[in-house]
Amino acid sequence: MIRQGQQLKLSQRISPQQIQFIKLLQVPTASLEQRIKEEIEQNPVLEDSQTGYQDDEPEIRPEKNIKEETPGGEDRTWDEASGQSEEYDHRTRNLKNDDDEEDYRSPIIQQDSLLDQLESQLSMLNLTEKEKMIGEQIIGNIDEDGYLSSRNNVDPIRAIVNFLGFRQQIAVTVEEVEGILLHIHQFDPPGVGARNLQECLILQLKRKHHTPLVDLAERIIEDFFEELQKKHFDKMRSRLGVSDEELREAYELIKKLNPKPGDAQPVNKHEIIIPDFLVKVENGQVLVSMNSLNSPDLRVSKHYTQLLKEFTAMSKNKKTEAVKETIDFVKQKIDSAQWFIDALKQRQFTLLNTMEAIIEKQREFFISNGDERKLRPMILKDIADVIEMDISTVSRVANSKYVQTDFGILPLKFFFSEGIETEDGMVSNREVKKALEEMINAEDKLKPLSDDTIADMLKEKGYNIARRTVAKYREQLGMPVARLRKEA
Fold first, then answer.
1. Buried b / exposed e across 444-480, counting CB within 10 Å, b at 16+?
2. Tens digits of per-residue pLDDT, 38-48?
């Protein structure tokens, strides 16, 4: 029996301005200058003051307050307008004329593997211990192309369920593994963790802004994947009810997708890194500065705005088709230029807000000159709540930005870690790793400590963790098992 009915469906559409902001937010400082040059080359309306143009528009230089711990345990009074404490002075400096700019802008080389990046993104999720183990097992089964691979023709999800049950004595369900896999499907690079090419392409399309073209491409892959592979275009066009041009554009979009997302993050990839922030501690105060490369002085060309005014003011009988096309072209370019400038401003504001919130949470770490035992447990949601932005936005910042300190250059993702419960409350797992590392370094190499013994010693210090967690942390620190540490 066929029934008709109405269904109310709510969907969120992302504006072009938001898309512009999201894309710029992910660009590292080392690549931002090139990205800006490309935009200027594509849009004649966009200008950079460094080229010699004169303009009265203000520079793009966001300034924020960095909060200092209130002495004497006094309560803080928050200014409703700014959301900042009244006791704090402005502590943000621009680095353009800073004496340390040369050192601050010097690139370093970072080695990072696909596995490292996936594990880092996993660590920033608010997961239970069981969920983390499932996630680690999934990531461990992702091959160099970025796929969740199957072995011996066994479904990878079922294989993980069996492995955790038989080898680790951890009972998990297919639904639990699939639930964690959904999280990993949101990781970068897009398409990672797919079980086959079809799913890989769909995952990449779902990360794009929904347009009729994207929706058509997604439908082709979902419903006509076999025809697509065989290039049966006539059959697809007929069954989809689209024109030759629409089908061609969808096909071109699909061809631009990456069939091997792991190639986007090759193992031992060398990446040039320029820190986005400089953090210094002076007289007990934590000072933060943004790299001047993040603060370009861009503007909309006065020549083109004046040109638009002149054409718009023309009488109707003088507005030929050519003039109307020129008006539409210039207006579109002016809008595009302003969107780009606004997106850069929002990028700067978000970066600085995020770094400020991290400093506030991890102030003791900076004051202690980088003592990892002073790191507090912190997840993405903690920062997202402070800056009142989405968790995905914080994730994009944390995954691609770096800070230079007096004790080294650190990725922002370094500051995010899971919590371990102790008698005195929650502590960062980095504190536990530090204690574990010190125990192994101080052990008798003729009788090295077993993981069970280390677990007992950590419990005596108040860190209640299991032996398998000790093994996991030891492996993450690059330390071998006891028998391999034994010296003759």
1. eeeebbebebbbeebeeeebebeeebbebbbeeeebe
2. 888 888 888 88
